[in-house]
Structure formats: structure tokens, C-alpha cells
């Protein structure tokens, strides 16, 4: 476990590396963020951004999504994994937002989770990114970093989320979600963590630490 006395410094170092962390998904308002995050399940942010570039030029609201229709939506997102199911969920969710929320995205986690295709992780991302709530959405990166470092070990995403809420200092609650995701994506990678350039390696329980790859020199004649 990362010691309680070291947790503040753990986050402070991640914050120093990325002073203004934010999602790498492109969006224009809370609604397009909901759509983007829902599409990102089992897909990369880069892939989702490519698919939504033209879509979000046409669609900014749930009603505009309904006007676009499911078949046209599929054409926009057909490069994204599970696009048929996701298109159906996005259209159904748009209808619920129009019928029950006046076409607005509710700043309420339970209401967000009631939308098809929106689970706890997606709801937490929207609450954090769009509405400034200190929620932590545990994806594969956060789950790995939390367990590997010992910051907040847990057997399920929910267990890790609950532990992170307890151990994350108040000063870092709002940005914790982004710092941990980006650290997992670019440094504490799934296959081989790059410990040699990790800002929090000294607090991490992962062993043995990986070393920097040796530079290949020119062969001697």
C-alpha cells in the first residue's frame, strides 16, 4: 500500500506533470460528452474522436440526435466497436433525455446511470468533466494503477472507486480521475510499466521496477 503519509506527495507529483488534466475525448457540451464516453467503451479515445468529428458538427442536442436517426448514426460510428448496440442505446437515451429531462443532461449520477449504455463509469466521467464533481471513474487504467502501485487495491472497479474516495486528499479529488488515467495510459502501461520515468515510482509497491531500454550502439568493426 502507498503509505498514508505519502499519498499527498503521490498526487502532487502527478499534478506537477499534468497541471491541467482533462479527458482526451472531444466534445462540445455535456450531451456530446455523454455520447462520446458511451461510445468509448471497448474502444480507444482516438478512434471515437475520429468517428464523432463529423457527427458533432451536425448533432449537439438529444433532439438533433433523434432527428438524425439510428441508421444515419450508425454510418457515423461504424468504425467504433459494437456500433450497432451503441447506436441503439444512444438513440434510446436521447429519447429519454427529451421526454424526461427537457433535452438537458441531468447533473445527477443516478439519473445518468438510468440511461441505456451509461454505466457508473460513464456517469462518473460526466459528473466530473461536465459538472465539476469530484467523482472518480474507474476504467482499466485506473484499476491497474490503483492495484499495481498499492494506492487503492481492490478486486472490482467499485471497490477501487470506494477506496480511492477514501485515500485521495481533498486537494486532488477533482483531478484524480484524469491524473490516474493518463498515468496508466502513458507511463504505468499494462504490459510493461515504464518505471524508469515514473514520478511516483518510490511510493509504488510494484517490483521489480523496470529499467530504461538500453540504447543500441554501433557494432564494432
Protein architecture, described:
- The structure is a single chain.
- The protein has helices spanning 7-17, 30-39, 45-58, 62-68, 70-77, 83-101, 109-113, 120-129, 140-149, 157-167, 173-186.
- By secondary structure, it is mostly helical.
- The model has no long low-confidence stretch (mean pLDDT 94).
- The chain is built from eleven helices and no strands.
- α5 crosses α6 and α9 crosses α11 (173-186).
- The protein is globular and about 55 Å long.
- The chain has two domains: 4-20 and 136-203, Endonuclease Iii, domain 2, CATH 1.10.1670; 30-129, Hypothetical protein, domain 2 (Endonuclease III, domain 1, Orthogonal Bundle), CATH 1.10.340.
